[in-house]
Design goal:
This protein has 168 residues and is mainly α. It has two domains: 67 residues, no CATH class; 96 residues. The chain is 59% helix and 7% strand. It has five helices and four strands. A hairpin with a 2-residue loop joins strand 3 and strand 4. It is globular, with a radius of gyration of 20 Å. The relative contact order is 0.09.
């Protein structure tokens, strides 16, 4: 609850976020903290997942996030037009950085979706009588995982092509 409230305070200036977006962002933060070993999932079986701070979390020194206002993004000028398609300069580091950041975002979403699928499986094992209610949710989260994985693979293949060829 404290983490969710802190995220809402942090991003309250973003008016396009709804409550679901806040929850997604909080879950992504929890996943990052779990991966880093700063949180651990409680062993108790309850309706909602609970997390505890690890000694590493207590010993960690966190810094205030600094945001830099880069101003509005300027549209990139096309290098040339070939058969109606715009060709941007491939050696532009901004493109690579944006694609790398997009892959990282999708990877976090993928972990979230996989975690959701695993939780539905755990709930099914714990409460087999809920199979009819849990199965559609499980299948949907598995489908979402597949779509996100496809997006990651597509972007990674574009990035690999950018490294090989001077022009995409």
């Amino acid at each position: 609850m404290e983490l969710r409230d802190a995220i809402i305070r942090e991003y309250k200036h973003e008016t396009d976020m709804n409550l679901r977006d806040y929850h997604k962002r909080a879950y992504r933060v929890v996943l990052r903290l779990l991966t880093a070993g700063l949180l651990e999932k409680s062993k108790d079986i309850s309706e909602f997942a609970r997390y505890k701070k690890t000694p590493l979390f207590v010993a960690s020194v966190f810094q205030q996030r600094v945001t830099v206002d880069r101003g509005p993004k300027q549209p990139k000028q096309p290098k040339q037009v070939e058969h109606g398609a715009l060709i941007l300069p491939v050696n532009d580091p901004c493109i690579r950085d944006e694609l790398d950041q997009l892959v990282k975002t999708y990877q976090v979403d993928l972990l979230s979706s996989i975690g959701e699928s695993e939780e539905y499986l755990r709930l099914h094992q714990t409460y087999p009588q809920l199979k009819a209610k849990l199965e559609p949710h499980y299948l949907k989260s598995r489908d979402v995982s597949s779509k996100i994985l496809g997006k990651i693979r597509a972007i990674e293949s574009v990035l690999a092509g950018m490294l090989k060829d001077p022009v995409l």
